[in-house]
């Protein structure tokens, strides 16, 4: 058994209090709640002794508490960080790997929520529900219901960029409910696996040219940052809609605004922005054919509870020396294992992949 009681820290709150309930009174770890309002020096003092750091979601997370190299340098006992949801772009994975710090996420816990949100945006755009609602609320607006003619999505083509856990569920809904043709661009999956996920493997160019709806479901990373810009939007049909429920920064917001302004695409459904929440004068919010939500795709009662439960279970496993699920950087395990043994006084169990 450990000679040290591991300390797990988090700021403000978990997305569901069930996690605190699960962890608060355990004998095998110390749960410490930090407050952004506390003097920074005091928070750093506590963080310096932390073994685990549950990182708050990007929208709520504040400087200087991002999971970057600067934070790692000031936390010599830190063994692991875990993101709140599936995304972990606010944690510097390379810096963690170099320091022997594991990075975990909660991939899969909000799959249904985000897939349904993307489907909702697609339906609302195609049926022009958002525009109709806005016109009904404008005093003196002329309402011509035939001018609000929309389209059925049945039998249309949807292009999915990244057909991982969420993209796969979105493809299942589109194919199964509406008989849609599913095209998928994903460099990490072969054609046979994509076919098992109800899609046909294509490159990005073909996907953009052929799809009536383009939906983004890939993580934000070095290879996907600004992946969709003016050249990519120029490939889309003028009748096509663009949807992003993944991460801000994957699409160039100015380029998307220009494509909408010049009517090169029919509209967009955006749940994620480079800066969140976006300011009221954000260019994309000025368009009637844009539906925008403040990164709420994964914010459902069911998803938040599952995120919290999964993270709590993950920490119990990890801080007790067992390989946790959903490790983002398994290549860090050898260095992590050596550091864990030196800090905690016993070696962690060797995972099958190490």
UniProtKB/TrEMBL annotation:
Going by the record, the broad EC class of this enzyme is: oxidoreductase
What family does this belong to?
A: Belongs to the D-isomer specific 2-hydroxyacid dehydrogenase family.
Cite the entry's keywords alphabetically. Answer: NAD, Oxidoreductase
Q: Which InterPro entries match?
A: D-2-hydroxyacid_DH (IPR050857), D-isomer_2_OHA_DH_cat_dom (IPR006139), D-isomer_DH_NAD-bd (IPR006140), NAD(P)-bd_dom_sf (IPR036291)
Query: What positions does the domain D-isomer specific 2-hydroxyacid dehydrogenase NAD-binding occupy?
Result: 119-297
Q: What is the recorded name of this protein?
A: Hydroxyacid dehydrogenase
Give the D-isomer specific 2-hydroxyacid dehydrogenase catalytic domain ranges: 28-329
* EC number from the UniProt entry: 1.1.1.-
């Amino acid at each position: 058994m450990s000679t040290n009681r591991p300390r797990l820290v988090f700021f403000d709150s978990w997305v569901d209090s069930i996690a605190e309930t699960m962890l608060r009174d355990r004998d095998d770890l110390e749960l410490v709640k930090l407050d952004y309002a506390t003097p920074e020096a005091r928070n750093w003092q506590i963080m310096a002794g932390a073994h685990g750091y549950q990182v708050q979601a990007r929208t709520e997370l504040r400087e200087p508490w991002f999971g970057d190299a600067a934070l790692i340098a000031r936390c010599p006992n830190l063994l692991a960080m875990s993101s709140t949801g599936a995304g972990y772009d606010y944690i510097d994975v390379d810096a963690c790997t170099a320091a022997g710090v594991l990075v975990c996420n909660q991939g899969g816990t909000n799959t249904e929520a985000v897939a349904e949100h993307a489907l909702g945006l697609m339906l609302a755009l195609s049926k022009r529900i958002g525009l109709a609602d806005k016109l009904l609320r404008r005093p003196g607006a002329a309402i011509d219901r035939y001018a609000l003619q929309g389209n059925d999505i049945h039998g249309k083509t949807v292009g999915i960029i990244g057909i991982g856990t969420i993209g796969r569920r979105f493809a299942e809904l589109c194919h199964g409910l509406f008989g849609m043709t599913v095209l998928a661009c994903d460099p990490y999956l072969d054609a046979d696996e994509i076919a098992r996920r109800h899609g046909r493997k294509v490159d990005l160019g073909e996907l953009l040219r052929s799809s009536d709806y383009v939906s983004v479901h890939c993580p934000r990373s070095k290879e996907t940052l600004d992946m969709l810009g003016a050249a990519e939007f120029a490939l889309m049909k003028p009748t096509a809609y663009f949807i992003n429920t993944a991460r801000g920064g994957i699409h160039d917001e100015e380029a998307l605004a220009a494509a909408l302004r010049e009517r090169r695409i029919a509209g967009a459904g955006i749940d994620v922005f480079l800066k969140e929440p976006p300011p009221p004068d954000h260019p994309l919010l000025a368009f009637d054919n844009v539906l925008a939500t403040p990164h709420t795709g994964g914010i459902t009662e069911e998803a938040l509870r599952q995120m919290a439960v999964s993270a709590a279970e993950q920490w119990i496993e990890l801080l007790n020396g067992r390989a946790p699920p959903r490790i983002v950087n398994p290549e860090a395990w050898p260095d992590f294992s050596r550091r864990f043994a030196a800090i905690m006084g016993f070696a962690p169990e060797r995972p099958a992949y190490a």
